[in-house]
Amino acid sequence: MAAPALLLLALLLPTGAWPGLPRRPCVSCCRPAWPPGPYARASDGDPWWGLPRVRPTIDIEILKGEKGEAGVRGRSGRSGKEGPPGSPGLQGRKGQKGQLGPPGAPCQRAYAAFSVGRREGLHSSHGFQAVPFDTELVNLDGAFDLAAGRFLCAVPGVYFLSLNVHTWNSKETYLHVMWNRRPAAVLYAQPSERSLMQAQSLLLPLAAGDTVWVRMFRRDQDNAVYGELGDLYITFSGHLVKPAAEP
């Protein structure tokens, strides 16, 4: 029993507790950590102090494998928003003169004109009446109807119109230049002992299908224009000044 008890006592008691035995100095049993931390204190007795710090490196090229095959191309993305316009570029050089083109079609000018007259005098018979004509001086394309006393416009544009009459002694002269159904101008002369020539002229923008004519108007007293079979006292004329289609 004595041997085991002594062995147990030797394990439990510290080294310096045995009487008569010298104390052994404490020796570090493990190596200091490496590399030392940023806050570690260096001492002269540290065997690792002063040695260069070595960091291991790995060559990535050794770990790389071979290049793989190209993948399938993805779908096209959505179109982005339109950006702001850029600044204008420099003006280019003047190009070479082109070849002469073929000759164009000849210019076709539109014409329209009439000039008619009345040799026989006319008295008003009722309130309104159209003045017929019996003499044709100019009538392009037959646009003026002598019996009806009307010009029918076939070429639209601006027309110059003129009316000339000879008054009758002691009778009133009251005429209208009519544009379709509305009076465009009046020719008037008061009753007088002497007859005289009266004239009226104007410009009208006529459309295709418009008509111009002369209307006689009777009021309380007789209305008349003078005429003789041998001479031409009453004339009504018109011609196209500017076609509507002309620039």
UniProtKB/TrEMBL annotation:
<keyword id="KW-0176">Collagen</keyword>
<feature type="region of interest" description="Disordered">
    <location>
        <begin position="67"/>
        <end position="105"/>
    </location>
</feature>
<feature type="compositionally biased region" description="Low complexity">
    <location>
        <begin position="88"/>
        <end position="102"/>
    </location>
</feature>
<dbReference type="GO" id="GO:0005576">
    <property type="term" value="C:extracellular region"/>
</dbReference>
<dbReference type="GO" id="GO:0005581">
    <property type="term" value="C:collagen trimer"/>
</dbReference>
<dbReference type="InterPro" id="IPR008160">
    <property type="entry name" value="Collagen"/>
</dbReference>
<feature type="domain" description="C1q">
    <location>
        <begin position="107"/>
        <end position="247"/>
    </location>
</feature>
<feature type="signal peptide">
    <location>
        <begin position="1"/>
        <end position="17"/>
    </location>
</feature>
<dbReference type="Pfam" id="PF00386">
    <property type="entry name" value="C1q"/>
</dbReference>
<protein>
    <submittedName>
        <fullName>Complement C1q tumor necrosis factor-related protein 8</fullName>
    </submittedName>
</protein>
<dbReference type="InterPro" id="IPR008983">
    <property type="entry name" value="Tumour_necrosis_fac-like_dom"/>
</dbReference>
<dbReference type="InterPro" id="IPR001073">
    <property type="entry name" value="C1q_dom"/>
</dbReference>
<dbReference type="InterPro" id="IPR050392">
    <property type="entry name" value="Collagen/C1q_domain"/>
</dbReference>
<keyword id="KW-0964">Secreted</keyword>
<keyword id="KW-0732">Signal</keyword>
<dbReference type="Pfam" id="PF01391">
    <property type="entry name" value="Collagen"/>
</dbReference>
